[in-house]
Structure formats: C-alpha cells, structure tokens
Amino acid sequence: MAVPQERLATGAVATHGDTAPYHRLLTPPALAFLAGLHRRFEPRRRALLAARAERQAAWDAGQLPDFRADTRAMREGDWRVAPVPAALRDRRVEITGPVERKMIINALNSGAKVFMADFEDSSAPTLANQLDGQQNLIDAVAGTIAYRSPDGRDYTLGADPAVLVVRPRGWHLPERHLEVDGEAMAGALVDFGLFAFHNARALQARDRGPYFYLPKLEAMEEAALWDGVMAHAEAELGLPRGCMKVTVLIETLPAAFQMHEILYALRERAVGLNCGRWDYIFSYLKTLRAHRDRLLPERGQVQMTVPFLKAYSELLIQTCHRRGAFAMGGMAAQIPIKGDEAANAAALEKVRADKLREVKAGHDGTWVAHPALVPVAQAVFDQHMPGPNQLDVLREDVQVTREQLLAPACGTITREGFDNNVEVALRYTAAWLDGQGCVPIHHLMEDAATAEIARAQLWQWLHYAARPGERNDCVPLEFADGAPIDMALFDQLLAAHAHRLRHSDLPGARRADEAAALLADLTHADALGAFLTLPAYDHLP
Ligand SMILES: CC(=O)SCCNC(=O)CCNC(=O)[C@H](O)C(C)(C)COP(=O)(O)OP(=O)(O)OC[C@H]1O[C@@H](n2cnc3c(N)ncnc32)[C@H](O)[C@@H]1OP(=O)(O)O
Ligand SMILES: O=CC(=O)O
Ligand SMILES: [Mg+2]
C-alpha cells in the first residue's frame, strides 16, 4: 500500500512526484534517516559549494590552481590508509553501468571483479531512474534480482557475481523530489542514504562493505564531509566505524592538487583513487576557462598521453601506492561495434592499448563500459600484473610539478571535430532529458562527463574566437582552411542536428528541440556554466 503524501510530509521528508510505487523503499524510518542526514550535513554542503565558487572566481581573475601551503604536513607526513578489505584486494577489471535492472544483472555476471552501479555520470536522475535503481540494488544485494526481457529472455544472478560498489551523485546536484524542512535534499545524500539504509547491514554481515565510489570532489574538505556522513550513518545503523569503504574519483583539476589530502581526510575508509579522465578533461576546461593560453584542441586529440593527463595519472599512482591505496585506471570510450569485424577489431585494439598503458604505468585495475570488454582488459592485466595488485610499484621516479598538471595541450580544431561536439552535446542532452544517461554515439560511449567536454569546448572556442586581436598559437581558433569558427556556424549546425535527431528513432528524438534550446542558451551565455546537468535537471520529470 502506498504511503500517503501527507504522512510523509508530516513525518520526515516531503515527497514530490509519483512516489507511490516506492513505498517499500521510502518507508518512514528510511525517510527519517534521510532527514537526519540532511539536517546534519546540508549546511556544510552548501558552504563547500560556495567555497568552490570563490576559488573559481580567483582562477577567473587570473590565478592558477596550486598545491596548498596549509596542508604540506599531510603531503609530507608518513601515514597510510586503513587496510583494504579482502573483497577489494583484486580489482583488475571493474565494469560500470547505470542502475537499470537488466544491466545490473549483466554487469554482476560479466566476470569483472567489481561492478560500479552508477547513479551518476551514466544516469539521468529522473525520480523513476533513481528510485527504480535503489529497488534494483536491494534485490541485487538480496541475491533475488531477476528480469524478463520483452522478448522473453530471463536474467538471474550467476554463481560468482562481481563485488558491488555504488556511485552516488556529486555534491552539486539537488534531488527536488525529496524535501526536508522545505529544502530540496542533495542528490548525493539521497543516493547514499537510501542505499546505506536498506543494504549496509546485509553487506557488512557478509564482509562486502558497503563500498562506494565518490565523484567530482574538488577539495579535501569535501572528502571530509563524506567521511562525516559515513561515520554518522555507521553509528545510526549500528555498524562498525570505518566499514564503509570508498574509492575517490580524481576527476577535477583542483582535486589533483590535493590527492594526499583527500586520502588523509578519508584515511579510515579510503581504499583507492581512480583516474576519472573524462570529467578531469571537462574540469581542466572549466577551471581554466578564463585562461586563453590553456584552451584544448578537439576531443579526439586529448588522449591520456598528452602531458597534463600523463602527469596526473602518474601522480595518482605514486600518491596511492605511497599510502597503501589502489590506483585505479579509467574508462576508454570505445565499445564493441556490431556487424563490422574490422572496425570492431580496431575499437578493441584501442581499448587494449589504453589498458596496456595503464597496467605498465602501475595502475592496479581499470574500468570497462561493456561486458564484451571484460576479457580484453582482463587479458592485459593478467599478463602484466601477475599478483592481485601492484601496490609495491611506488613510482618514485615520478616528479610531477604544478606546471605539468596545468600544461596546455596543443593541437587543432577541425570542422569534423567541431561538428562532432555539436552532435554529441545535442544527442546526449536529448537522450538525458528523455531519461537515458548513457548512449552510444558513433560507436563511443557518451555520458554526462564526455558530453560536458563537448559543450564546454564549444563555449570556449566560440567565445575566444570572437575576441579579435588575441591569438593562441597552441590551439589556433580557426579551421585548417582558415574558415572562421563562429556562432553563426554553431547555430546552423545545431539546427541541422536537431532536425535530423527529431526525425530519427535515436534516443532523445522527442526531446531534440528542448535539448537544442538548452545548448544554445549554454553556448551563447557570457560565462561557461558550471554543469550542463544543473539547468537540464529542471526539465526532467
Ligand atoms: C565517464 C564515466 O563516468 S564512465 C562510467 C559511466 N559510463 C558507463 O558506465 C557506461 C556503461 N555502458 C553503457 O551504458 C552501454 O554499454 C552503452 C550505452 C554504452 C552501450 O549500450 P548498448 O548499445 O545497449 O550495448 P549493446 O547493445 O552492445 O549491449 C549488449 C548487451 O550488453 C549489455 N550491456 C552493455 N553495457 C553494459 C554494462 N555497462 N553493464 C551491463 N550490461 C551491459 C546490454 O544490456 C546488452 O545485454 P543483452 O544482450 O542481455 O540484451
Ligand atoms: O567518471 C569518470 C570520468 O571519466 O568522468
Ligand atoms: Mg566522471
């Protein structure tokens, strides 16, 4: 029986939208738990978001990120994170994916060591997606999850499922369907809170966590906030302190300057850091948006081998291994290509090369986006990492400087690269508005992070190209044939792609015009918006 709205409102949390199907999830005790998280931690979350804006204002005024003077002792001191639990000591291949029922089962059965269930980059946070996802995970933790596809195929869990790790939303996103004292809750606290409330005890009893991936952190204080949230949750749920373990994505440029500090803030529960390369590229663009000498060339030219990305990944490995934490690699965007053997072999080869670079650099494991890529990544790690991890590879040879982390990557902008950014930004946004947080476009996985790169680059190229008299020889702001990069071209391509999408059967076709209007606003705006998903969230059901 559905819990009536009024009861929820007078109990702990007021709900909006059709929450009736979720009465087993949004029970009064679960809502009271969420309300406790909100009341205790929301003021700090807001203060930390305001601190982000202050730092960005300084960078916009000409300063550049740097290592912190006030935390030198943490960087130089001799300390290690708490021991890594047995279930996470071999993480050579981790599959990621949205919290959709069939995909959860496929991911858990994929042969990967870990499945990262994603409420974040690959999820469009509609009420239904987030709450169905929670219900699916309850069933997965119970081992009872099952699914029958429309064509009659049955899915159940196999004998040796992957270890579950859950990624809640980042600190910036609200969840307007759940309100405490008239304030929207943080998406992060809703995702974390519901999962922990319903599953933490069962997972802890099996020595399986609960385990989390933490996205988009920008400072050690944000890591400390997560530590406080988890310590509080452990106490409330009667769990041993420190049983909730976390792997932090280093996927913002500011966080790359605070890797030791972030591990230190979470040292009772941190088991590793991960190179979230796509958001990291986006964050490089956003953080340095006022610095004309640090534009980036088109997306295809910003590979992990360019100096600023190589420096960041090596610093991550060195930092982690000095502290006894895992240094996880990231996501290659290629996915299998059906019906074209040669193209498929070429895509798989790119994934293989990426994983080979990672394992040789000292990473302890990596991410794949699709079950067919598990054996590809596993073969590379099995061959080059005979033990369960390579924590003993200390990379003391690595000397990464501030300049290396900030070094611009030179290259070009081609018409194809510009057009691809317009197409990807539009098609992804439209799919997201239609409830799909991850889609294949031209045989690449596109999610919130990759789409952010596309739309941030468009803004940067167009706004800088419009300023006459300023040059950037590292990334020339014109096409190779000398044709201009300008808003007229952007508007024309956006209209053409919206027209094509509207008349297709591709994901998001029916939201093409809304997505185009949103992108036009973001791209014409005087300032580069912090997140595409913030204005887009107002359009979600
Ligand atoms: C930047 C970052 O944050 S990266 C992390 C976030 N991104 C992700 O996690 C990407 C996850 N990947 C995906 O969502 C999908 O692979 C896509 C959208 C890229 C492609 O999906 P599709 O076009 O459906 O792939 P495809 O048709 O080849 O799928 C074949 C089968 O594999 C399954 N599958 C594909 N990807 C996954 C996955 N990541 N996890 C579990 N199952 C998967 C499909 O459900 C399908 O199952 P079925 O045969 O039982 O019907
Ligand atoms: O979350 C991962 C990323 O690359 O972004
Ligand atoms: Mg990311």
Can you lay out the helices and strands and say which pair or pack?
Layout (H helix, E strand, L loop, with lengths): L4 H7 L2 E2 L12 H33 L11 H5 L16 E6 L2 H8 L5 E5 L8 H16 L3 E3 L5 E3 L6 E5 L6 E7 L2 E4 H19 L5 E4 L5 H18 L7 E6 L2 H4 L2 H7 L4 E6 L1 H11 L19 H17 L2 E6 L9 H21 L3 E4 L5 H11 L17 H5 L8 H19 L5 E3 L2 E3 L1 H18 L21 H16 L9 H13 L8 H5 L4
The structure holds acetyl coenzyme *A, the ligand O=CC(=O)O and magnesium ion.
The site of ligand LL5AMS7Z has 10 residues, from α10 and β12.
If you had to describe this structure to a student in words, what would you say it looks like?
It holds the Pfam family MS_N. This protein is of the alpha/beta class and 541 residues long. Helix content is 47%, strand content 12%. The strands form 4 sheets. An 8-stranded parallel beta sheet has the order 6-3-2-13-12-11-10-9. A 3-stranded antiparallel beta sheet has the order 1-7-8. Helix 16 (448-465) crosses helix 18 (512-524). The chain is globular and about 65 Å long. The model is unreliable at 1-10 (pLDDT under 50). The structure holds acetyl coenzyme *A (ACO), the ligand O=CC(=O)O and magnesium ion. Magnesium ion (MG) binds next to helix 10.
